User: What shape does this take?
Amino acid sequence: MAARKRVAVVGMADGPEADEGPGVLACLARARFERVAVLCHENESGALRPGCCERAILVPHHESSTQVSNLVEAVRAEGLDVLLPGSARVAVMLARSADTLRSAGAGLCTPQLEAAALDTLHGVRLAGRHPLPGTPVLGACGGTYPVVLQSSCGARRRAGDEWEALRAHEALLRSGPAGTETPSVEAINWIPHATFEVALVADGRGVAVASSAVRVLADDDRLRPWLAVTVENDGLVDAAARVALQLELQGPSRFLFLLDAHGFALVDARAGFPLWIEVTTVGGPPLVELAVRAALGEELATVDSIPCTPAGVLFSQTAEDALAPSPR
Assistant: This one.
């Protein structure tokens, strides 16, 4: 019997600061993978979830360059076969350091997906947005609220008035990883209760292999979904797949959409998995395992109709990540 591959998820924030890392690990079957939680800070608690992992290690991120060198050392010392991102910030770091990490022996398949790439898309409608100045000022977001502010490093804040927008803008300018350039920030007109997200894994040509889509029922001021339910919507998934194809993405990506009178409008696209990734354990294609296979260099099969998680699966972060099929 073949030895289990050692798969490490980098970034284990949980609780009030939750990111997707703990959920990504939970999607991997212990019988097939040896799961390693890589904590980026001493206070991260995601590795403490029962049955989440077999081993946890600390690789601090005081500076971006230091974290990469520490991660290279961990790959070699721990014999890590695959690295997966546990947050949007980590996804950026892994993509930018891919060559260094691969030379250390780690398999990874995290697309280098920058926010500026969305401006090159055609045939995909973007939600209304405008860049904000480098110095936060009142009124920079315009007169229509609520708005969402998001930075080029992946952080987000929602604001209901000018004062909230000012404070959110200030916070986002400080949100970039240590040692990197100051992130740019843009404001996006927001439509409450009309938020949808898509996760998909693409092959080396950018062709979507499998997907999962949800409607967000409740979230916080950083747009982290605490409650979501899976949906089956070909138009929504096809819109995300068109983005992946045009940008030639490989591996896992997530897409945020707003539904308005004209249909779905793309808000943002980021590398990695969404917070609700555990819905994929209930039914449908195993997105995390497919990402592991891609990181190991396997060729992923594509089909004309993109496989998707069945509709009606409920995700609740506030109820200890409870998953249950909803009544139809």
Q: What stands out?
A: Residues 64-78 form the longest helix (15 residues). DSSP finds seven helices and 15 strands in the chain. The longest strand covers residues 208-219. The mean pLDDT is 90.
